[in-house]
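TA notes, week 10

Several of you asked for a full example with nothing omitted. So below is the full record: structure tokens for the whole chain, then the designed sequence directly under it. When grading your own attempts, check the secondary structure regions first.
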């Protein structure tokens, strides 16, 4: 992907995901086992031997690669603790109901280290299915296009039911110095999935990344966790993504990864319960969570703070990012803005459509004080911004709409706004080519936020580590629009019922 820039008020608006394509040679599936016998295999890097049968601790295999070559459907591979300097390629698949599981033995720490590898990728998984990986650390490779885990489905292949649970990805770097400014071809990817499939049957499906940690990775213009192309059905849940350069989590489309333009989007996904912080780059506006051309994705109950953007829904190429629902998130102290959405390049058709940004809590974003505010909108249409709480820093800038088209049929309503100064007549709203300095004049001039108000939400704490629950007596209680809650099972940030006795609060929390 090529980096493109646009002015964001007085600064660069966006330099998102730029990555070098990875060529994938799909290996033949050498061990599609017909037996679903519940074998347990053992790997012992110190005492094992790959000529053994691997079926006992005393006859363990020596290398993880041997298990990637020989494990059968329904088996579990237990790996003894230690550091394995291996460059791994998966040659086996499980079957439905009988996955192959690769995990650590007896809670021992298993490290797969790429520092001695001749290639750029530590683990390659191409056109394989029904696999589970848990309790492993993937680390230490520094070279251009370094990759921790590469998952791919080839043009005529496919991959489904792949689960990555409780893995650590760290120091996957394109360079050893995070302060070095990359060019567009200098990148690293701790975890990346490419859906090259040309048809629906060739998609990557049911991809799960859960309870993993991504930290201390230097990714250039790429991301720590990225899904790109024909990927249909994924969950990214309960991960901790922090202290990485550039973007934390990304779901991407319209870059030609799949030759079928109708399927070239990461889609039908859930991004929930993740904590993203300190994902920053001096050379680009980074973000905690970024949708670039994806569709039909729910971003729910995440915490994202001290990134470039908290959450961004954009579309850098021709086409749309659509049907993205952003709900029940805590978004605070991010550098540029809490949420940015829309296309930004006047040279493309890229825009954001039919998205909902609802029941989120924003607190003192735009820490670089450039006047962007708590949310920022570019080329976007048919989007709803409602039931949110926006609490600004001392700039008193509530939000900004860039003067760029198209921007049609957007609805802003049922929100609570407040500033540290507490004065509704001392605010800034940047509305296309006009600036409003009072909340009343903004409502009159735009017709937006008819049911919204400017009142102190009464957060529990606004200290260094804010507690953004609201106190009894908060104006946010019961004043949201319940008609926007279409899922009767929706939960608030704490996991409690979103609708109580027919009432909905503003913000990420619901008083029970």
């Amino acid at each position: 992907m090529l980096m493109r820039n646009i002015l964001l008020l007085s600064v660069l608006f966006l330099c998102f995901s730029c990555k070098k394509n990875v060529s994938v040679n799909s290996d033949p599936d050498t061990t599609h086992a017909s037996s679903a016998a519940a074998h347990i295999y053992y790997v012992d890097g110190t005492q094992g031997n790959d000529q053994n049968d691997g079926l006992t601790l005393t006859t363990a295999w020596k290398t993880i690669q041997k298990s990637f070559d020989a494990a059968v459907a329904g088996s579990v591979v237990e790996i003894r603790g230690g550091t394995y300097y291996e460059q791994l390629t998966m040659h086996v698949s499980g079957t439905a109901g009988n996955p192959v599981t690769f995990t650590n033995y007896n809670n021992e720490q298993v490290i797969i280290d790429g520092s001695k590898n001749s290639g750029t990728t530590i683990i390659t998984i191409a056109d394989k299915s029904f696999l589970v990986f848990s309790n492993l650390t993937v680390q230490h490779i520094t070279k251009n296009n370094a990759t921790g885990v590469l998952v791919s489905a080839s043009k005529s292949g496919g991959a489904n039911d792949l689960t990555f649970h409780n893995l650590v990805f760290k120091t996957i770097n394109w360079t050893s110095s995070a302060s070095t400014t990359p060019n567009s071809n200098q990148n690293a990817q701790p975890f990346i999935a490419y859906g090259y499939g040309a048809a629906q049957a060739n998609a990557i499906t049911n991809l799960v990344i859960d309870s993993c940690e991504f930290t201390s990775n230097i990714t250039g213009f790429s991301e720590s966790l990225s899904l790109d192309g024909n990927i249909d059905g994924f969950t990214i849940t309960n991960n901790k993504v922090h202290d990485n350069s550039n973007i934390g989590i990304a779901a991407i489309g319209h870059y030609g990864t799949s030759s079928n333009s109708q399927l070239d989007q990461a889609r039908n996904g859930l991004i929930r319960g993740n904590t993203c912080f300190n994902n920053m780059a001096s050379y680009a506006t980074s973000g905690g969570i970024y949708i670039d051309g994806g569709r039909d994705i729910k971003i729910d109950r995440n915490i994202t703070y001290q990134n470039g953007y908290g959450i961004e829904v954009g579309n850098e190429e021709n086409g749309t990012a659509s049907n993205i629902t952003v709900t029940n998130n805590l978004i605070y102290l991010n550098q540029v803005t809490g949420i940015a959405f829309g296309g930004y390049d006047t040279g493309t058709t890229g825009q954001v459509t039919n998205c909902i940004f609802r029941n989120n809590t924003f607190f003192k974003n735009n820490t670089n004080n450039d006047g962007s505010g708590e949310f920022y909108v570019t080329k976007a249409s048919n989007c709803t911004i409602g039931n949110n709480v926006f609490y600004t820093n001392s700039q008193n800038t509530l939000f900004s709409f860039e003067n760029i088209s198209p921007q049609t049929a957007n609805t802003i309503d049922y929100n609570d706004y407040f500033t540290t100064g507490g004065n509704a007549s001392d605010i800034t709203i940047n509305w296309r080519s006009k600036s409003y300095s009072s909340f009343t004049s903004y409502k009159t001039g735009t017709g937006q936020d008819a049911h919204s108000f400017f009142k102190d939400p009464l957060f529990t704490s606004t200290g260094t580590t804010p507690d953004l629950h609201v106190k009894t007596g908060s104006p946010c209680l019961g004043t949201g629009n319940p008609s926007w809650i279409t899922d009767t099972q929706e939960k608030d940030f704490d996991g409690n019922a979103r609708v109580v006795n027919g009432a909905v609060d503003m913000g990420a929390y619901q008083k029970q």
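Residues 1-37 have pLDDT under 50 and may be disordered. Use that as a sanity check on your answer.
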